[in-house]
Each structure stands twice: as structure tokens, then as C-alpha cells.
Amino acid sequence: MKQNNHSIISDVKKVKGLGSAHHGNGHWMAQRITAIASIPLVLWAVYSVFNLQGVSYLEFTAWLASPLNAILAILFVLNTFYHASLGTQVIVEDYIANFVFRKIKLIAQKLFFIALGVAVIFSILKIAFTMGI
Amino acid sequence: MTEETNKIVIKAKRPLSPHLQVYDLPMTAKMSISHRITGVILTGGLVLLSIWVIAAGLGENAYNTMMSLIDTPITRFVFLAWAFVLFYHMGNGFRHMFWDLGIGITEKAAVKTGTLVIIFAVAMTALIWWLTCDCTTDTANIIVLDGGVHETE
Ligand code: HEM
Known about the structure:
heterodimer; A: mainly alpha; 3 helical TM bundles of succinate and fumarate reductases; B: mainly alpha; binds protoporphyrin IX containing FE
């Protein structure tokens, strides 16, 4: 077997799970941790979404301004966005073969999730701080 | 023949089965790919929920516009479908994590737990609909109130 002596990655690092994906098992574990954390958060979110269908602006903002709902909503956003970001990352890695396209798509969607997540959390905080009693 | 042309001949003759357009995938394979598809659909759902909250943050007008778009009979059905997709993905996620622990990795078990996941998704969707549908106690109250009004008149 040909040895690549020029690599700055040590053999130990190679053995510790840096395979064809170029990163270790941290991603896999994070996908599972966010999955488990999302069980209660998702149950709460689905129940809330169904209850909030068609409610007025005042009802919605009063609901979101309650500390418990605001905190759960922020946790839901952080956890689920992270889970979705990790999940869609794997899909792109699997299906986009071209290196440049893949990297651009990966960076673009990461920035997209960060921007959307910040916008949602900002909106939640704004409602919580201005509409709360 | 050189080794290179040899390789090309072998490649050309290689069978393509299972060809996805004609091959009827087994139930376990359909469920496998649908975990990925539901993950993508749910990501789209997440974007929609985000727009709802952002609209509320922008103020009453933006909120009302958004609500008039997402509170129609059709979108109510879409929300129900979203819940089903979510519970399906959740059930299948449990299945994935049990497999990671080495539990249930036989074909027989996979078919059985796959059926369980579908039952779980239908049952949870029905439960959430029943819990939030305004068609149990609330309607009863309205009827009682209505009766009360008529009596006093
Ligand atoms: C709105 C909520 C959710 C979104 C947007 C979402 C999205 C995704 C996406 C895009 C993937 C990648 C699929 C793939 O690699 O093929 C994924 C994987 C996964 N999801 Fe979710 N998900 C959500 C909720 C949940 C919940 C509640 C669970 C709870 C059990 C869960 C468990 C998992 C697991 C275990 C995986 C990894 C499967 C694998 O390794 O192939 N997800 N999710």
C-alpha cells in the first residue's frame, strides 16, 4: 500500500474516525442527541400549532409572551434547526458529487439556517419583551 | 485487449437492477428512503412555522396577512398532513436509534417495527386532532349555552 507521507494528518487522527466523510462521528451523535431532545419539544410544538390555528394577533402574541412558551419556543428553534441542518447536510454530502457545488450548497444552507434561526428567536424575544405583561 | 478496454466492456454489460423506475422496492426500503424524504418535508415545514412567528414579530398587519393564508380548509388539511409526516419521522427515528443499539436488526423485526411506526403515526395524528379540534367539550358547551339563551328569551 502506498503511504502518503506528506499528509499533516497523523495516523492516529486517521484511525479515529476520519473516513471518507472527512469528519468523525460527532455529527452522527449530534443528530441523535437533537433527535432525543426534540421528542418533548416537538410534541409541545405540534399541540401548540394546532391550538393556535386561526387565533388573532393578540391571542398569538399573548401566548408567545408567556415565559414558558417563549422559552420552549426558543429551545425548539435551536434544537430543531440544528437537527435539520445536520440532516440536510448529510443529504447534500450524499447526492452532490461535484466538490465545488457541494461546498457552496453546504455553506449556503448553513448560513440560511443561522439567519432564519436568528430571525425567529429575535421575533420571539421581541414579542416576549413587548407584549408580555 | 488492454486492461482498460476490458474494464469498459465489463462496465457496459453490468446489470442495472434494481432499477428504481421499474423495481417495486420492498416495504423496508420504501420506509428507509421515506425517512429522508420526510426529513426534507419537515425542514420545509420549519421554514413555514418560522415565517408565521416572524410575521407576528413584524406586527398585526403582517400577522393577519399570514393567518389569512394559513387558515383555510386546505391548509388545515396540510397541517394535519404535516403532523402525520412528523410523527412518521419521529417513529422511524426511534427505530433508527434502536437499530443503533443493535435492537431489531433482522428483516422480520424491521417489517414488524415498520408497521408499528405507521400505526404510531396514524394514532398520534388522530390524537392531536382530537385534542385540539374544538369538537368535544367546547361544542357541548356552546349547545348548552345556546339552549340557555333560548330558554331565557
Ligand atoms: C421538524 C422536525 C424535524 C426535522 C426538520 C427533521 C429533519 C431531519 C433530516 C433532514 C434528517 C436527515 C435524513 C437523512 O439523513 O436521510 C433527519 C434524520 C433523523 N431524524 Fe429528524 N427531523 C425532525 C424531527 C425528528 C424527531 C422528532 C426525531 C425523533 C426521534 C428525529 C429523529 C431523527 C433521526 C434518528 C435521524 C437520523 C437517521 C439516520 O441516521 O439516517 N427527527 N431528520
